[in-house]
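Give me the fold.
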Amino acid sequence: MGTRVDGVVSGRVMPDGKSYARPVLKSCSYGKGGSLLIKAVQARLGLARDGLLGPATIRAIQAHLGVAQDGSFGPATVRALQARLNQGPSERRRP
């Protein structure tokens, strides 16, 4: 995907055009019933599909990526996800 592997989830440019808002990813939900994207990730990882990006889902993502399972979507998890997204399809299928 060409994502920079820097451990940073990009934010959005604020109205002043000079600063960025960084998302908080420890736990989040999107509307009634949770996120369809998170439900798809949960299904892929064999989890209950509630659509919420909570500590259990984050730990499962971390296990899948091979990083420490601390339940926090921090820089190490983001770097591993960025690196995985940059791999070709055949490389992503490896455990």
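The first strand starts at residue 12 and ends at 13.
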